[in-house]
Structures are given as C-alpha cells and as structure tokens.
Design goal:
Mean pLDDT: 88
CATH architecture of the largest domain: 3-Layer(aba) Sandwich
Strand content: 25-35%
Largest sheet: 8 strands, mixed
Low-confidence stretches: none
CATH class of the largest domain: Alpha Beta
Number of domains: 2
Radius of gyration: 19 Å
Shape: globular
Helix content: 25-40%
Number of strands: 18
Distance between the termini: 8 Å
CATH topology of the largest domain: Rossmann fold
Number of helices: 9
Length: 322
C-alpha cells in the first residue's frame, strides 16, 4: 500500500508547488459548499472553477433562498467561477459532457469538492477521473468540509428504490456477492429489509464511524439497531473506523475483501469521507455499489463550517488507491 497524504487544506497544498488548480464543486443550501472555494481563492490557487447547481425533484422556496445566498458568495470570487444547472436524476452522459467541456486535454491539476455533491454524482465522477481520464490528470485532490452541526430532524426523504449507483453495478463482478459492507450513518431508509431479504449468504461488515461524539453517536447506533431488528448483528461484524481517515478506511475495506479477492457489495450510507473510500475501492476492485438515493434534502441539512480537509488521490500521474 502506498502512502496517501491527507490533512487540512493549507498543509496539503504546501506539498504541491502548483498555483493553477481547477476546482469542481456543488452549489447547495449548505454554508459549507462555499468554504473550500473561498479558501482556495484567498490563497490564489484556483484559475477555473465549475459548480454544479443540482435541482432535486422536490424543492421549496427555502431551498431556493439558501442556494441564492451561497451563489452570491461564489459569484463574487475572482477565480473564473462558472455555475452550471443540473438535475439530481439526469442521465449520466450529461455529467460526463460537463467534465469533458471543463477539463483540458492533458496534464491538469484538479480539486473535487464532495462536501455537498450527491453520491449519484460524485461516485461516477471519481470513477471517470481515476479511470477514463487518469492519463490526462497530473494531480487529483478531493476536498471535504465538515459542518458544525446537522439538522436534528430528517436530513433527507423520498428515496428511490434500491439500485446501483451509475457505473457501479453487478456487471463489474464475476460471481455472487461474498461480502456486504455497509457504511453506517443517520438515515437507513429501507436498508434493514433489504439486508434481511437479500445477500443472506454473504458475510456482513458494518463500518461504524468512531468516535463520532454526541449526538451523532446516538443516531448511528439507532441506524445499527434498525438493522439488528431485521437481522441480528454479531459484534464481530462491526468495524470501528476513523471517518476522517479515507486512506485507513480504504485499507480496512481492502482487508475485509481479502486484498480485493472477494466480490463485494458496498452500501454507502455513512459519512461522505467513508463513502469516498468505498468509491475508490470499487473503482479498482470487484465491487458493486448500491444505494437508495434520496430525492428531497432538508434545506437546513447542516449549519456552520468546522474544518476543510484534502485527500490526495493522484500525485504526478500515480493513482494512490489501486
């Protein structure tokens, strides 16, 4: 396993003698969607920035108000910002066309901010960048900003049926699922029933972010208890992980899957950084990624800005997660 540098935004950027980064992010209702680009522009590190303004099937005037407020902050920045409209369930080719138009032909440096990007977008984007476009990328960093707090009520509602995230389906595996790995979060939706009725012969592992601290701890335990009611969980099936350490979580998944030899089903219901580790694993090893994509997000999903971290994915054309 190669060393995978990660840490706070400024400390990681100091490792690169680069002044011209491109930035891809998501305009949303959350304050944290502006944190990364504001800091990068203050440091004069970004020359071109593209924001996806993703409209959900179900929105409210409150959504529009918060998005407008954040767009005003972004549009004032002097770093070549473009805001592009998208819809949550749009065809995959629209996303790939946007990437093609935004990225230069070769040797570019890119920062992808996944803080508020839906999994339906950031999973295929990371796969395209590390597979289809890898020869063109010199350096790829992933940025994530944590909020001060999350809403106490439901973060999202109205999930789509259980289905693979685009480009991460069963056709990528050669035989039946041998291990199901579930990232634990706040909202299980109908996952407990799915685990009870499907994959009964597969081993199970539950990635528990620890220590999350209150009130996150209680919400994650409630998630786990809902699964336990449907099908009893054994203590050895729970794997405690540092949710901020993408490299270590990737290695844990790699080992659970017997160094990539076991066909896996990954269910990314946990923190975005745990989902990133799952995504990176599924880009290189036999794994399908399934999810119940929410179609309505709480406009007050989170508040405040806690910290902004960068994760090195490709350095000098070398993918660190293979």
């Amino acid at each position: 396993m190669s060393f995978k540098p990660w840490g706070d935004l400024e400390s990681i950027l100091l490792k690169f003698d680069i002044q011209e980064w491109r930035y891809l992010g998501c305009l949303s209702t959350e304050q944290r969607c502006t944190a990364g680009i504001v800091k990068l522009c203050e440091l004069r590190k970004v020359t071109h920035a593209l924001f996806f303004n993703i409209t959900d099937p179900i929105t409210t005037p409150t959504h529009e108000k918060f998005v407008k407020s954040n767009s005003i902050i972004i549009e004032k920045l002097d770093c070549g910002v473009l805001i592009e409209n998208h819809t949550l369930l749009e065809p995959l080719n629209i996303i790939t066309n946007s990437l093609e138009n935004f990225l230069p032909s070769n040797d570019y440096n890119l920062i992808v901010d996944i803080s508020t990007l839906p999994k339906r977008f950031f999973f295929p984007i990371i796969k395209f960048l590390t597979k289809r476009y890898q020869a063109r990328i010199k350096n790829l960093l992933v940025l994530h900003t944590s909020p001060e707090e999350y809403a106490e009520n439901d973060l999202s509602t109205d999930p789509t049926p259980w289905a693979h995230i685009p480009t991460f389906d069963y056709s990528d595996t050669e035989s039946e699922v041998e291990v199901a790995i579930i990232g634990l979060g706040f909202m299980p939706f109908n996952l407990p029933d799915l685990l009870k009725d499907e994959f009964t012969s597969a081993d199970r592992r539950f990635l528990f972010p620890f220590p999350p601290g209150p009130p996150f701890y209680q919400r994650t335990w409630s998630f786990l208890e809902s699964i336990n009611h449907a099908r009893e969980i054994r203590s050895q099936e729970i794997k405690y992980i540092d949710s901020g350490n993408v490299a270590d979580t990737f290695d844990q998944i790699f080992n659970i899957c017997n160094k990539g030899r076991r066909n896996a089903l990954l269910a990314p219901y946990g923190p975005k950084t745990v989902s990133l580790a799952m995504c990176l694993y599924a880009c290189s090893y036999p794994a399908a990624v399934y999810y119940t994509q929410p179609t309505s997000y709480n406009p007050e999903y989170s508040k405040g800005i806690k910290d902004t971290m960068l994760y090195s994915i490709i350095i000098n054309h070398q993918n660190l997660y293979t």
